[in-house]
Specification:
This protein is mainly α. The protein has three domains: 15-157, no CATH class; 167-274, no CATH class; 288-443, Orthogonal Bundle (hpI Integrase, Chain A). The protein contains 21 helices and ten strands. It has helices spanning 18-25, 29-38, 53-66, 121-131, 137-144, 155-161, 167-176, 182-198, 209-223, 233-250, 288-297, 303-318, 322-326, 364-379, 392-396, 416-425, 437-448, 453-462, 468-474, 480-489, 503-521; strands spanning 15-17, 50-52, 76-78, 83-85, 93-96, 102-107, 114-118, 333-334, 339-342, 355-358. It has a three-stranded antiparallel sheet, with no helix packed on it. It has a three-stranded antiparallel sheet with strand order 8-9-10, with no helix packed on it. It has a two-stranded antiparallel sheet with strand order 1-2. Strand 8 and strand 9 (339-342) form a beta hairpin. The protein is globular. It starts with 14 loop residues before the first strand and ends with a helix. 28% of the residues are buried. Mean pLDDT is 81; it is low at 137-160.
């Protein structure tokens, strides 16, 4: 199996320890040590070793590209890893062929595959230096390095954008932030790294109110609609919130308690910073009838096409997020009771929220598509623990439908299939919708119906919202075109006449109200 790590992409803003790398790359600690001895640089010389995600991605990309160029002295191309490696000296053997050619054989330090190359004078000199006991380790490392500091390609950009001064305290924060959702951690880290870029990597323990003021001024600039790197009001406010939360945590850490205790308050922006910005346009979404029409027109000729229809249907049927959809298993679908079991122990749900979701009472086609898809999977031999929406490989490869030592068919790791399914649904529509727009459609459907207050609350809770305010504030807002059309339909004769009551009628109504209250509460 190839070990080029091409498909392993670490998050550039995160800091990783050796155990993290062993888990991510499925290697042992010796392999990480070998990387350090060649081109990979830890963030500092302290222990335990920590590594920046961006540096690791560059390191492996540079190694893959190195294998396509002329090899350096002592360097071998590994056919297993698809990369250029320096094998350990004790694994290198020399063999002379019948035609007089001298070959070197060794083992890759990453995947332990056999590597070989025809010897050259440069190789022989290099290995002679390795065997020389008077050669210092530092000198040998200098021979191995392709570029100064071992950063690899795009070194200047890396040095400008990736400061490592604060990586150790950021790693400590990552441990604390493990209580948050992974995407939330990424947003916080993006704000923290932005803070580093503005201050040119200044150590957090030396922060002053002037540094925070500089960050605040840049956010005010980016809030202006004319800025090239403009950010929406929501994005700016989230940056401020994330930075304040990080600094509040930082003030409690050893070595940072002497910082000004009111430092987080300096991040607040004046309201005037957003006064020039127009309100953000409402999210585009389809009515339930239009969504049903799109679902009806989707192709059904292949298993993949049927899966895509079911993905779109369940997004509306349960107002589900994309990541939740792809992580569902067949057992999470309770068809007789019309339920979707969102078990946060298994399903990737926002904020780790478990919930039993009742199918929304919308058009029958959404129900029918889900029922038909579940029946199709059952006929193919899928079990309860198998993915409700398997990847293309498991749909195309017939071997995937056979039982294989009791191993269940895994769920998809990314939401690409959901995005692609919605793109297929609106391929002929001028208005493109995203998977998240289904939640807006369901919220708008609630406002269209004559529901009691208790029913409206149940509708919101079924969407996963703790209160109606969330549903009303963030979902199902009227697009500008719809709002303008409704206002045009308002006529002057729709104004209700004022209600005039005499004093006697007012007294009678008050007495009637008091009578009802007495009957109810005694």
């Amino acid at each position: 199996m190839s070990r080029s790590y091409k498909n392993v992409r670490l998050k550039k803003d995160r800091v990783y320890c050796v155990d993290d790398l062993c888990s991510k790359y499925n290697v042992c600690k010796n392999t990480v040590s070998n990387w350090v001895q060649t081109d990979l640089k830890p963030i500092d010389k302290k222990r335990p070793n920590l590594f920046r995600g961006a540096a690791l991605n560059l390191f492996h990309k540079e190694r893959r590209q190195r294998s396509k160029l002329n090899l350096r002295a002592g360097e071998f191309k590994c056919t297993g890893c698809k990369s250029a490696v320096f094998p350990l000296l004790e694994t290198i053997t020399e063999k002379k062929l019948r035609n007089g050619t001298i070959m070197y054989f060794a083992y890759c330090t990453d995947c332990n595959a056999m590597v070989q190359k025809i010897s050259s004078e440069a190789d022989r000199d290099y290995f002679a230096r390795l065997r020389n006991p008077n050669t210092t380790v530092g000198c040998l490392h200098e021979v191995k390095k392709a570029v100064p500091a071992g950063i690899g390609i795009n070194e200047e950009k890396f040095a400008q954008d990736c400061w490592s001064t604060n990586d150790r305290i950021i790693f400590a924060w990552q441990i604390y932030a493990g209580r948050l959702d992974e995407k939330t951690i990424d947003r916080h880290l993006a704000a923290i790294r932005y803070c580093e870029r503005i201050t040119k990597g200044k150590a957090f323990d030396q922060f002053t109110v002037l540094d925070v003021s500089k960050i605040r001024d840049d956010l005010k600039r980016r809030a202006c609609p004319d800025a090239e790197d403009h950010l929406s009001k929501s994005s700016v406010l989230h940056f401020v919130s994330h930075l304040k939360a990080f600094v509040k945590w930082l003030l409690k850490q050893d070595g940072y308690k002497r910082l000004p205790q009111d430092l987080p308050d300096y991040f607040d922006l004046p309201r005037r910073a957003f006064s020039k910005s127009l309100p953000r346009s409402a999210k585009q979404y389809k009515s339930i009838e239009d969504a049903a029409q799109l679902l009806q027109e989707m192709p059904t000729g292949t298993l993949q096409a049927q899966r895509d229809r079911a993905i779109v249907a369940i997004a509306y049927l349960g107002a589900l997020r994309a990541d939740t959809i792809v992580s569902l298993r067949l057992c999470h679908l309770d068809i007789p009771n019309k339920l979707i079991i969102q078990d946060a122990n298994v399903v990737r749900a926002k904020n780790g929220k478990s919930l039993k979701i009742r199918w929304f009472s919308i058009l029958d086609i959404f129900h029918e598509v889900i029922v038909d898809w579940a029946a199709t999977l059952t006929d193919l031999g899928f079990k309860d623990d198998d993915a409700l929406f398997p990847s293309n490989n498991h749909l195309v490869n017939k071997k995937a439908f056979r039982e294989n030592d009791g191993v269940s068919i895994p769920v998809m790791a990314t939401t690409y299939a959901v995005t692609k399914a919605f793109a297929m649904a609106c391929r002929n529509s001028p208005e493109k919708i995203t998977p998240h727009s289904a939640k807006h459609s369901i919220s708008a459907e609630r406002d269209r119906r004559r529901l009691s207050q208790e029913q409206r609350k149940a509708w919101s809770e079924n969407m996963g919202h703790e209160n109606e305010t969330t549903t009303k504030k963030f979902y199902g807002k009227l697009p500008d075109e719809r709002r303008f059309k409704l206002l045009e339909e308002v006529q002057e004769d729709q104004v209700a006449p004022p209600l005039y009551l005499s004093d006697e009628e007012k007294i009678e109504m008050a007495n009637e109200f008091l009578k009802l209250m007495n009957e109810k509460f005694g």
